[in-house]
Amino acid sequence: MRLAVLLLLAPTVAAARPITAGVNAGVIAVRSDPDQEANNTLGLFGRVGFSKRISGQLDVMRIETNDDVFTPTTVRSFSASLVVDLMDKGPLIPTLTVTAGLDRATSDGDTLDGHHYEGGLGLEYRSESGLNIGADVRLGGRSVDQPDYVLDSGVIAFVPDNAMQEGEYRAFRLTVGVVFR
After folding, report:
1. Quick one: CATH architecture of 17-180?
2. Do strands 19-30 and 110-126 pair parallel, antiparallel, or not at all (unpaired)?
3. Strand, coil or helix: what is 2?
4. pLDDT of residue 50
5. Domain coordinates of the chain in residue numbers?
6. Quick one: pLDDT band at residue 21, thresholds 50, 70, 90?
7. Under a CB-based contact definition with an 8 Å cutoff, are residues 98 and 149 in contact?
8. What residues contact residue 126 under an 8 Å CB cut-off, 6+ apart?
9. Please, what's the b/e burial string for 121-138 (b: 16 or more CB within 10 A of its CB; e: otherwise)?
10. Where are the alpha helices (DSSP H) in 31-136?
11. Is the pLDDT of residue 3 over 90?
């Protein structure tokens, strides 16, 4: 089945241009807790142009938390984005990004799954030589699918100590990519 889907999509992906691959780094902060220190992010992305101004992007990101309240946690995030170029001329291109994704946090053997949605604005420098340098600011929300640890009396007995928090967050990213035409 997967092979059939890949064969159907192969002409679409081959015809789509340009293709961009790169890295991103940034910070992410939970909006509900301004005293909590922002967490660093590091990731890889791939972008495929669907039309002159609309692209699809896939991101794989790692968020490392290490604060005094929670046990150090590694959050792995997979995101699919729609990137819209707000202008189509010049080396500086403002962008609008809409994203949905899945998260998995691990901490001392505990695992939590979640999902997120985010949107944001960015600015990219696209050189004619194929170098793409960008920055974006995003606002998002995360839901965490916590396992139920409930006693017979209906009281929650245990919630894993984990820093992947549910709620709104802000993120800032810097990206560097190479465009293949």
Report:
1. Beta Barrel (2.40)
2. unpaired
3. helix
4. 94
5. 17-180
6. very high
7. no
8. 91, 93, 132, 179
9. ebebebeeeeebebebeb
10. none
11. no
Does residue 149 sit in helix, strand or coil? coil
Amino acid (1-letter code) at residue 91? P
Q: Residue 176 — φ and ψ, nearest 5°?
A: -135, 125
Strands annotated E in the chain: 19-30, 39-49, 54-65, 73-85, 92-107, 110-126, 131-145, 167-180
Cα three-residue angle 28-112-151, rounded to 5 degrees: 130
Coil vs helix vs strand at 113: strand
Half-sphere exposure of residue 34: CA atoms within 13 angstroms, side-chain side = 0
Take residue 61 and report the two structure tokens written for it: 């990101």
The model carries a pTM of 0.79
Minimal CA–CA distance to 82: which of 138, 130, 3?
138
Q: Does 108 have pLDDT greater than 80?
A: no
Distance in angstroms (rounded) separating the CA atoms of residues 124 and 137: 12
CB 19 within 8 A of CB 48: yes
Residue where the block lists tokens 């972008």: 47
Residues in contact with 64: Cβ distance below 8 Å, sequence separation at least 6, in sequence order: 39, 40, 72, 73, 74, 75
Cα–Cα distance for residue pair 54/85, rounded to 1 Å: 6
CA 140 from chain center: how many Å?
10
Q: Which residue has the tokens 């894993």?
A: 160
